[in-house]
Design brief:
- Two copies of one chain form a homodimer.
- The first copy, chain A, is α/β, with parallel strands linked by helices.
- Chain A has twelve helices and twelve strands.
- The first copy, chain A, has helices at about 5-15, 15-25, 35-45, 55-60, 75-90, 105-120, 135-140, 165-175, 195-210, 225-235, 250-260, 295-310, and strands spanning about 65-70, 95-100, 125, 145-150, 160, 185, 215-220, 245, 270-275, 290, 320, 325.
- In chain A, the strands form two sheets. In chain A, strands 2-1-3-4-5-11 form a six-stranded parallel β-sheet, sandwiched between helices.
- Chains A and B meet through helix 4, helix 5, strand 2, helix 6 and helix 11 of A and helix 4, helix 5, strand 2, helix 6 and helix 11 of B.
- Chain A binds a DNA duplex through helix 2 and helix 4.
DNA sequence: TATCTTTGCGCAAACGATTGAGCTAACCAA
DNA sequence: TTGGTTAGCTCAATCGTTTGCGCAAAGATA
């Protein structure tokens, strides 16, 4: 069936496109279109299988009911979950989502933003890939925007993210309570706010327990490779660590690989705790204790905040940190006194 | 900076919007716009930070350079990978992607299709959620469409999918070669073509080896719950199976859980092989041998086929099956003769 | 009968781009 | 002087909607 337009309905019913448009937009009362006319029009709409042309509506109304979502890597289950939740939540408000991948690159991010602006999206949700807010603050004057997962300090851009500090604090406390005194933390990229907050939580907690001197922080990438290398190095150094705090689940995998190669058992020889959730972590041997980010809530809140900005031009709060959950499993054990 | 339009450039330079449009579309030569005028125009474009309004272009050109992607569940890493690859590949052709979630529901699928048609996407890639091709064949007359991962038999709709038959054949052969004679296969929804082809490959291979009588096929959903329940039942029945073929990685997790509860070790007590890939499968104890689908290739081919249909109106081939890889790990062991 | 009110709807511009069909001025040839 | 060519542009319609303004006819009021 070829696509029909308002003009087709007009020809078929004899009414003007104006009248038809009004009936279809629920303004029949307001403009006193008789019930009889309304029925004729609605019938023709049905018969001709009319469907509004969203592109034309968007042009006229200056609104596309579309939001752009920028993520650094859709392959990553974490961001896939965000995308999924954002798409689902936006749908509830009758918004469609355009997902673009920025490949952790500021250049790709800028390009993606140009695309979204050109396509007149009503607003943008982004997990920033650059470590400089200048592009985004400029953008913010043109379009509503909400940062998600990552954000910038000393910057008014509204964001929603996990309270990474608190998560790291909880994890570290758990290890300390189990008697661990020599805890290695393998972080991600040092310039990333996510890493920074987690490391800070870890450091502060150790300091509070009077353990700061023996804290070890290293690594520079959220990757399996990094977790592997850093663990290997630590084991070779024999610096007597009894617990490892992996700041992401990719890092965790590297840690596990290295421990296995050295014939070490979790948690008997080494306690392990990780950031991020994944169903598979319950199927490892042993299941891994972890800090789970509230991805669903973050996404829902971000969409709400964005749509508030779009529709009412208001910004409720500058930034919002949501609390992570701690999932207790079996990869952390009390430190026995006969251990070094 | 407020958005500027062709008309703004026109006011600023004194040229008509026609001329400006032509310069920007690389038709300056063709319409004999002097080099001097071109430079003035390009300068104004730069100064006013002009960006074409894609919505207006789409309306006029009857093309949105957008493709719609329908997946049954974006949360599922398998579909997330598809989405990622489709978005990446479409980007190469300068297309943007709208991803909609159909929640495995024919109703949501129809609704999503209405949305996409209303928004004038140039074409659609879908992992069908309904088990009836009627809506999609009707759609096919209106818009280019490509099915992906799932498809319909006796139906001309073009598709790209894994050769599930071959994958199951390879897996079953591997088990038979290891000496297994009593192999349980836990399938997904029986009406799904994916499940059907895999079960067929499994059945045919067993038959060829003269083992058909002892084949066990059960289950009805691609879920962890299903894998768990069916394995429990089988173990309770004590029907002497020595190997399990899980038709998806969600099912696999259920299988593992059940085996653990019964204190059985993989592969000493039970050999296990699965469909689908996931990095975590290498970190299980032991790493799981599996049939890995060529997700990347499938997505790339689907995008190519779709864009061919959009731009040249041609359909290369009706359907295309790509070969899966078999990833050999340690979850399959030779059947020892002292086993039942 | 004249004026006012209400009912029921249509005209035409606008959103921002593209495009077929002209149009003017300059130049050249005869 | 006339006619033709060419360079270098512009006009106005079009894509499919929405909307401010307006308008005719019927009924009510005086």
């Amino acid at each position: 069936m070829k696509k029909s337009t308002l003009s087709d309905i007009s020809k078929s019913t004899g009414f003007s496109v104006t009248t038809i448009s009004r009936v279809l937009n629920g303004k029949a009362e307001q403009f006193r279109i008789s019930r009889e006319s309304q029925n004729k029009i609605l019938e023709a709409v049905r018969v001709l299988n009319y469907r509004p042309n969203f592109v034309a509506q968007s042009l006229r109304n200056m609104s596309t009911r579309t939001i752009g979502l920028l993520v650094p890597c859709i392959d990553n289950p974490f961001f896939a979950n965000i995308a999924s939740a954002v798409i689902g939540e936006a749908h509830k408000y009758d918004y469609t989502v355009m997902v673009l991948d920025t490949h952790e690159s500021a250049k790709d991010e800028n390009e993606a933003i140009e695309t979204l602006l050109s396509r007149n999206v009503d607003g943008i949700i982004t997990v920033p890939s650059s470590d400089n807010p200048s592009t985004l603050t400029a953008l913010d004057r043109e379009k509503p925007i909400i940062l998600i997962d990552r954000y910038f300090e000393n910057c008014h851009l509204p964001y929603v993210a996990t309270d990474n500090y608190q998560g790291a604090l909880d994890a570290t406390e758990l290890l300390i309570k189990a008697g661990h005194k020599n805890i290695m933390c393998i972080q991600g990229p040092p310039q990333s706010i996510t890493s920074q907050r987690r490391v800070q939580g870890y450091r502060d907690t150790l300091a509070k327990a009077g353990l700061s001197d023996r804290a070890i922080v290293c690594g520079n990438e959220f990757s399996t490779q990094n977790g592997y290398v850093e663990t290997k190095l630590a084991l070779t150094r024999k610096d007597g660590i009894s617990a490892i705090f992996a700041l992401s689940n990719t890092i965790l995998l590297g840690v596990i690989k290295a421990l296995r190669e050295h014939g070490l058992t979790i948690p008997a020889d080494m306690s392990v705790i990780s950031f991020d959730d994944n169903i598979y972590l319950d199927f490892l041997n042993p299941p891994v204790t972890r800090i789970s980010q509230p991805i669903e809530s973050i996404s829902i809140v971000a969409v709400k905040m964005l749509i508030d900005r779009i529709q009412r031009g208001i910004t409720q709060s500058e930034g919002l940190l949501l609390q992570p959950d701690i999932l207790l499993r079996e990869s952390v054990a009390p430190l026995l006194s006969n251990k070094p």
